[in-house]
Amino acid sequence: MAKRRITAAERERIQQILDRLNKAYSTEYKCYLNHENAWQLLIATILSAQCTDLRVNIVTEDLFKKYPTLEAFAKADLNELEDDIHSTGFYHNKAKNIIACANKIILEYGGEVPRSLEELTSLAGVGRKTANVIRGNIYNEPSIVVDTHVKRISKKLGFTKEEDPVKIEFDLMEVLPKEHWILYNIQIITHGRGVCTARSPKCSECFLQDLCKAAEN
User: Fold this and answer.
1) From CA 119, how far away is CA 146, in angstroms rounded?
2) Domains of the chain and any CATH numbers
3) Which residue in 50, 126, 132 sits closest to 91, CA to CA?
4) End-to-end Cα separation, the chain, in angstroms
5) Looking at residue 75, what is its pLDDT?
6) Which residues contact 68 (CB under 8 A, 6 or more apart)?
7) Could you tell me which residues come within 8 angstroms of residue 109 by beta carbon, excluding any fewer than 6 positions away?
């Protein structure tokens, strides 16, 4: 893949965007999925596929009390677990993947959620997005999580023209300084929920309007 050429003017625009995001949303690392450890975040992220973080947090509040250990998830009854997570959607696959995932972590990784992208994506139900959530939030490894907000707003900002999340991830890795990868995820999700919403973006209120490529059209 040819390396993208970024002009000095574009670099300056990108830095202005990042500076404004920092000012508006701070540089504090935070995760919207409630968890107390790595395996809880992994399960919560699996549940978050095609589901809101709010709904996942409601479900996991009781779920993590009923299954207080990774071993408890590994031994869970499939049908019962399906009932427990039913409201998150796609519960058949999610339940099956959670049990398989818990078993593999126990058997192959000594009960510790692995750190590398390759090991994480070898787990049932774990793709690059979920793996990068773990790498960024648990291990502070620079990583970019391409969710719906990041995909939509990155295209508006002119950081990518791609539709495929993996291609978007690689575009953003070229465009953004590595030390800002995790923060970008957090800040753009916040921006997407409050200002640049999918249905009715508040462009007139947006502090990025003069730097946004979509606003030029």
Assistant:
1) 19
2) 8-29+144-216 (1.10.1670.10), 38-137 (1.10.340.30)
3) 50
4) 29
5) 98
6) none
7) 119
pLDDT at 215: 76
Burial per residue of 75-89, b for 16 or more beta-carbon CB atoms within 10 angstroms, e otherwise: ebeeeebbebbeebe
Predicted confidence at residue 29, as pLDDT, reads 85
- Which residues belong to the active site? 129, 147
Specify the residue for token string 């058949």: 92
Residues 6+ apart with CB under 8 A from 124: 96, 97, 98, 100, 101, 104
| pTM of the complete model beyond 0.70 | yes
- pLDDT value of residue 101: 97
115: Cβ contacts below 8 Å, ≥ 6 apart = 135, 139, 141
What integer pLDDT is reported at residue 3 of this predicted model?
Answer: 66
Place of tokens 């078993």: 103
Average pLDDT by consecutive 10-residue portion of the chain (217 residues)? 78 96 92 96 96 96 98 98 98 98 98 97 96 95 94 96 95 95 94 94 95 82
Give the count of alpha carbons within 13 A of 149, CB side only.
19
3-state secondary structure of 55: helix
Using alpha carbons, select from 109, 103, 143 the residue that is nearest to residue 124: 103
